[in-house]
Amino acid sequence: MLxxxxxxxxxxxxxxxxxxxxxxxxxxxxALAPRIAAASEVNAPPLPAVGEVFAVPNIKRLDGTPFTADxxxxxxxxxxxxxxxxxxxxxPEMDKLYRAxxxxxxxFLGLSIDKTPQRAQDYLKLKGYVWxxxxxxxxxxxxxxxxxxxxxxxxxxxxxxxxxxxxxxxxPEDVAEMARWVKG
Length: 184
Fold this sequence. Notes:
- The protein has 184 residues and is of the alpha/beta class.
- The chain has two domains: 7-42; 59-181, Glutaredoxin.
- Helices cover 39% and strands 16% of the residues.
- It has helices at residues 11-42, 85-101, 117-127, 138-143, 172-177; strands at residues 59-60, 66-67, 75-80, 107-112, 133-135, 152-156, 162-167.
- The strands form two sheets. The chain has a five-stranded mixed beta sheet with strand order 5-4-3-6-7, covered by helices on one side. A two-stranded antiparallel sheet has the order 1-2.
- The chain starts with 10 loop residues before the first helix and ends in a 7-residue tail after the last helix.
């Protein structure tokens, strides 16, 4: 059938042929998606080292507001996905941390790697999470690639230096312990 799509056709058949080619292309992309994702994970950078300067590019949050990191404010960056079972266990704890520490000066930015921003928004709404989050655009991912693994949590402090970097699910007490980075 696929070879039939490559044969000459009349203009009347062109629309049907375009639809079939688009469908075949989508099937191929769907089949390759796991391989592409796995390849990008293999090429992902390691976790940043404690003390390393960790720049965070500007990004638009899911609510449409811009996010610009203050290099002198403690910032928690949390890469997550709505389909990640480990994120599902850690995210409620991240929400508790945000609610408790934002009034004390801790900044927070969730970085969704979901396929679409809408999927990330729907998930946050469904779960009732209030932490600010953005969808990782290709431009952001190029400027600040996600370290290998998921979830990824990076705490950045004064002078934009890494205070803590964690790969994988954190236990509730580990998340709560991040509050120690905010003075006061």
